[in-house]
Every structure is written in structure tokens, then in C-alpha cells.
Amino acid sequence: MSLSDADRELVTAELGREPTAAEAALFENLWSEHCAYRSSRPLLSAFDSEGDQVVVGPGDDAAVLALPDPEAADRPASERDADDYGDTYVTFGVESHNHPSFVDPFDGAATGVGGIVRDTMSMGAYPIGLLDSLYFGGFDRERSRYLFEGVVEGISHYGNCIGVPTVGGSVAFHGGYEGNPLVNVACVGVTNEDRLVTATAQEPGNKLVLVGNGTGRDGLGGASFASEDLAEDAETEDRPAVQVGDPYAEKRLIECNEALVDENLVLSARDLGAAGLGGASSELVAKGGLGARIDLDKVHQREPKMNAMEILLAESQERMCYEVAPGDVDRVADLAERFDLGCSVIGEVTDGNYVCEFADDTDADPADREVVVDAPAEFLADGAPMNDLASEPPSEPERDLPDEEPPLDEAVAAVLSAPSTASKRWVYRQYDHEVGTRTAVKPGDDAALLAVRETEREDDSADGVGLALASGANPKWTAVAPYEGARAVALENATNLAATGAVPLAAVDCLNGGNPEKPDVYGAFEGIVDGLADACAALDTPVVGGNVSLYNDSVEGPIPPTPTLAVLGTTRGYSAPPAALDADRAGDSELLLVGAGGDALGGSEYLAHAGGSDRFPTLPDESGAADDLGGLVASLSAAARHESTLAAHDVSEGGLAVALAELVTDDAGVEATLPDRVAVFDETPGRLLVQTTEPEAVAAEVGDLPVFRLGDVTTDGTLSLTVDDESIALSADAVRDRRDVIERELA
After folding, report:
1. Catalytic option among 34, 157, 642, 649
2. Which of 431, 490, 498, 624 could serve as 535's disulfide partner, Cβ 3.0–4.6 Å?
């Protein structure tokens, strides 16, 4: 990929001359789709990103949110005011590393983790949790399994080494990802008002200091590589564009960053990711309306005889660019040395252009230095023109259910063992999800729960704020109906939080699509953007940041439109009802279904097995079951928190068949009767299974939401299900056997 003729004309007109080779390469990367969002930025204004909780919104390395005080943590955002928020902040961000993970699954995924962690650090925060949402081709394909295993190993290795727990996420398998997997990683960190740092340069005369690993030749052109379709020979031809990570250096950088922030030495910061030093330093000064002078030969390097373009654009990992007051430079260097990290004073902030100079001989006379870049920083960072693309809206399928339905036992077995709905224990058992001692609810339930002990009151023995986290998307939903499917993705993630008793605080999104120059692909992408935006607005959940990844297209075709949403919520305390039945209270408890189904099977795992088509289910706010999605989720959260609740679990992928099976344990089962196949396999989100000793009290707690008694909780560890004139009975062992397909196949 090179600078297009049209872009070169714009650059030439702005500079008044032809760009140098280094300038052309820098513009090519910074004006790429990956950095400039040329096809998606016009759509992103649909998102509401404001609220009393939002300290720093979109545009920085990560969003910053104020946590509510513990006594307000259970109340929806609509019922809080500015005084309900304390001085403990969390950061939240998400990134994709899709193309690199196809070329080199281990390093591509590992460096994706490293990048989002550094985004967290650049805000003055300490990383406390990771979420990974992963998408691969059919699990029965050898290539997909190779990528799956490599990506999980890369995430596990990097996250475990740096001591940041991977506490949640999702995994989906779909034929549309055969030639282009997706690796989306979110990170949450903790900071406060005094420690907050942004990526906005402050003042001319301050020094720019590079701290971290030496610069090598890895990752050259990574931003432009991520902005084009994957070619058939990408694994070999594009390998130089993939960065190579060093998690042990990242761990030292995390601790060094903490020390720098502790001593108030950082005036602004940006991690070195897309477009390397050129991207980080130019964006840093552009946000402050300033410029810079950078001596590229002063950058500490790990390879000999690097030229100016390589130093400027290499995406070598584990590096941070800091703005530092001149009098603090020596102390920054001392701390870098303490943590065995390289440190270079590479230039300073100015009130002019963004200027990079280079000399092959570092002792050369200043008059002999070559100016390789001299351009307005704001033009570099924000001058890319937006694309005006044709759009073709998708059509919704008609109801055409199979004439001969498979037997109930076969259908349930198929849905339970489908890789997308099956147990993901093989994945999360490879992660150290307890490092840091904050993980109160571990992976495997609906959402993770982290203890934010910084919110505890010195004069109050009660727990502080629990931070609930969930992320993911369902490509079957959005492939069938991009708009409605994206709305369902938002509701599903919010319901996951509700199952822990939490209410949403904010969200970040990772919007993945194919080649936007194809009208049908761009039309579907518009659908997922609008669907997420509308649902998050209805949930009263601001979307405070995110990432866009387009050109996820290969010889296999475009990926399904994939709107990964990561949602963060709060609850008082660090406990939550389990997603498993309580056998000890079987005799005096009932199993309730709270919330209404959408009476359709479009996008369901059942139809993927049985064949046929259907419209996408009607979501609750469309059917009159709740005034708004925010009220619905608040009611579900209240049901989970009710003192009589013994277990809570959401209904989504696989429908009630999977949700009921996941509740069953060796000592606790359920006997349920359902009217038809739609009721069994409908995947409408916004519904909660609740085991309670006081069903009337729970029904009163959720107001107008429909509540159905599903059946009895038993002590035989069996899922007994009757539908029409068919019945099945599956023991806990049989359920596990069907759901352990991933672990069994990869053992």
C-alpha cells in the first residue's frame, strides 16, 4: 500500500512541495483507514458519549470514568447525579489486532494485549483486568484450530507474564472468519484525579522522552497493512508488519510508568502503537495544537544502521512517549534505568510544525542534519479526507422453518455441543485470572466482577464498588440482521452485567467489518453502528471510546459485521449470585424466567443445525415489555440482587436449552415444560433465569416485566425438558460431555 494519487495531491498542496519519502510514508500510515477512520468517522457521531460519569471521552488512548460511591453503585445512571460520583476513576479501552493475528497468531494476539495495556498506562492508570473477544472460522477446519490455539496461547503468555488478569470475554466460530479471524481486547485500569494523564501536549519547550524497549525493524507499515484486504500470501509477505512482543519488558514498563506518575513527572503521554513513533508523537502534539522537533537518530535502537523512515514508523513494542518538563528529564532517566529500560530524550514540544531531523552520524554538525519531515502536526493527525461510500441496505429473511424438525434430543445435543455455545473452559483455564487479588467472580459466569477496594470508606466496614465486565458479539445475529442484531448484542452484554446484580456505567466498542468499498458490506456496517448506538442510548450507557477495524476481507470473502461491545457496570460489594442451581434449597425454591421472548429463531444456533430461516427476534422494548432497555436491565439487576435469589443466569446463545443446561450441577437439576421449539431455542436477550425462595417478591421487584414459572428445582442433577409431546432427560455428566467439545477436541 502506498500514498494514493489523490492524497499525494492534497499533501503536496498543503506542503507547497513534493513530500519526502519519510513524509509520504508517514502520511500513508496516519491517513490509513486504521488510523484516520476515513470510512467510519462520519458514522460515529451516532454514539452518545456524555454523562456525569465521563471524565475523558472518545479521542484519547482510553476513556476515563468516575466510579459512583458504594451506596449509589446499584442505581442506574439515570437515577444518579454528579454528586453521586467519587474520586476513584477507571479507564476503559478496546483495540483490535486482527490482521497480525492471522499472519502470526501468537505474536499478533500477544502484542494486541500489550498495546491496549499501554493505552491504559498512558492515562496514568494501573491495568487491573483484560477481556478478549475472539472470532474464528469453523471449528472443524484445521486452519481455524491452528489460529484459535495460537491466539489463546499468545494472550495467555503475554497477560500472565505482565500480571494483568484476563477475566472475561467471548469466543465465536463462524464460516465468515475462515480467512480473517478477529482478536478484540479490552482493558480496564484504576486511577484518580491526581494521577490522571492525557495525550494532549502541554507547553512548548517541554522535552519528549522515549522510554522502553529499543526500536527495531519489526512492525514496519503495520497501520497501512491493517487497512487493506488480506492477500492469499499474507502469512509470508506481511510477516514484517507484525510486531514482536516482550512481556517482561512490558511488566517493567508498567511499574516504571507507575513510578513516573507517582512522582508527577509525566505531563502527557502516548503509547507507541500504530505508525510507531511518528504516530504517537505527532498525535500527542496535534491534540495540544502544538508542534515538535524530533532528532530521530537520538532514538535508542536495537538494530544497526536504521534509516529515518524505519525509526519513524517501526511499531516495535513496549515503548512510551512522554512529555516531560526540562528539569525532570534526569529523574525520568534514573527511573528508566532502575527498571532496566532504555531512555532517550528525542526532542521537544514547539509551537511550529512537526519536524523530524536525521543524521547518519550522531556527531554530525547541526547544519548537516537532514530534515526528513516538516509538516503541520494537525494536518498529519486530522487532515485525511473522509470517504463518501455507496451503501446497500441488507434485507431481512422471511420465516421459512424446516418442514421436518429434528428430534428434540438431537436438537438439544447439537445446540449444546456447537462450539460457539459450548463451554469455553479450555480458553479461560489458560489465563491467570486471579493475579492482582481483585477477581471476585471468575470467568465462566455471565460477567466478571472485580473488587475496587479504593472505593471503600475508612469509616465504613462495608465493601466498596464491584466492577462488572462483559464483552462480545454474536456474528449469527448480525449476519442475519445487522441493525437488530447489534441492538441485541448491546442488550445481551448489559444483561450479563445484570445477572451479577450490576447496572451499566459505560461501554466501548470495536466495530469490525469487511471491505467498505463494497456497498453491501458498508450497508451492513452502517446497520451495526446505528444498532449499537440506538441500544446504548436506550440503555443510558454512554459509548466512551472504541476502535474500528475494516478491510477484514480475504480470498474467503468478507467477515460478518461484528460489533464487539465491552460493557462496564457497577454494584455495591463484591458478591454475586452464581450461575448454578442451589441444591440445598431445591425443596423450597422455584425457577423463574424474567423477561419476554421475541418469538423468532433468526440468527439462532438451532437454525444453524436444523436449517431454514426466520426473522430476528423482536427485542423487549419493541414488544411493550418494558418502557426502555435501561429500565429492563435495571429490573433484571434488581431481581439478581434480591435477598431471596439463589442463582441467576441470562438467556442468549442457544436459548433456554443452553441456559437451563448451564444451571444444572451434579446435585441440582430442573424439570421444565415449554410450549414449542421457538420457546426452547429463541435467543432473545434481556431475559434472566432466577432461582428464588420468594417468587412473588421477585415478581414484585421487576414491576411490569413478565415472569414465568419454568418448573421445579430438583436434587437429581438432571435437566428434564418437555416440549409438546417430546421429553428428554440429561444428567449433569451428559451435559458436560456435550459442552466440553472444545476441550475434548484440543486435548
Report:
1. 34
2. 490
Catalytic residue among 97, 99, 174, 433: 97
Residue with cell 519526502: 20
Read out DSSP for 358-389? E-SSTTS-GGG-EEEEEE-HHHHHH-PPPP--
pLDDT for position 512: 97
Bridge partner residues of 722 (DSSP)? 673, 727
297 contacts 348 by C-beta, under 8 angstroms: no
Phi, psi of 162 (to 5 degrees): -85, -5
Mean pLDDT score across all residues of the chain: 93
- Please give the grid coordinates belonging to residue 37: 477512520
Q: What is the dihedral of CA 680, 653, 524, 521, to 10 degrees?
A: -120
The answer to whether 649 is a known catalytic residue is no
Contact assessment for residue 503 and residue 631, using Cβ atoms and an 8 Å cutoff: no
Amino acid at 359: A
65 pLDDT band (50/70/90 cuts)? very high
Q: Is 610 left (phi over 0), alpha (psi -120 to 50) or beta?
A: alpha
What digits encode the pLDDT tens for the residues 599-650? 999 999 999 999 999 999 999 865 444 448 999 999 999 999 999 999 999 9
pLDDT digits (tens, 9 = 90+) for 158-172: 999 999 999 999 999
Closest CA to 613 of 396, 416, 414, 411: 396
Neighbours of 329 (CB within 10 A): 17
Residue 177 has pLDDT above 90, yes or no: yes
Give the whole-angstrom CA distance, residue 612 versus residue 614. 7
Task: Cite the beta strand spans of 444-498 per DSSP E.
Answer: 448-452, 465-472
| Helix 21-30 × helix 276-287 angle, to 10° | 70
Check whether 223 has a pLDDT greater than 70: no
Residue with cell 487493506: 228
Question: By the 8 A CB rule, do 116 and 129 touch?
Answer: no
CB atoms within 10 A of CB 85: 22
Which among 119, 113, 148 is positioned nearest to 132, based on CA atoms?
113
Q: Is the pTM of this model over 0.85?
A: yes
List of residues 6+ apart from 240 with CB closer than 8 A: 217, 218, 219, 220, 221
- How many degrees, rounded to 5, is the angle at CA 185 between CA 111 and CA 742? 100
Stretch (H or E) spanning 95: strand 85-96
Task: Tell the residue number behind the cell numbers 495544537, with chain if given.
Answer: 289
Residue 474 CB partners (closer than 8 Å, separation 6+): 172, 485, 488, 489, 492, 603, 652, 653, 683
Nearest alpha-carbon partner for 653 in 424, 482, 408, 469? 424
- Residue 55: pLDDT above 80? yes
How far apart are the C-alpha atoms of 554 and 589, rounded to whole Å?
53
Three-class DSSP category at 469: strand
Using CB atoms within 10 Å of the CB of residue 64, give its burial: 0 to 12 exposed, 13 to 18 middle, 19+ buried. Answer: buried
Residue 232 — pLDDT band, cuts 50, 70, 90?
low
Quote the strand ranges of 120-229, DSSP E: 126-136, 166-173, 182-192, 207-212
Q: Output the CA angle 553-174-187, nearest 5 degrees.
A: 80
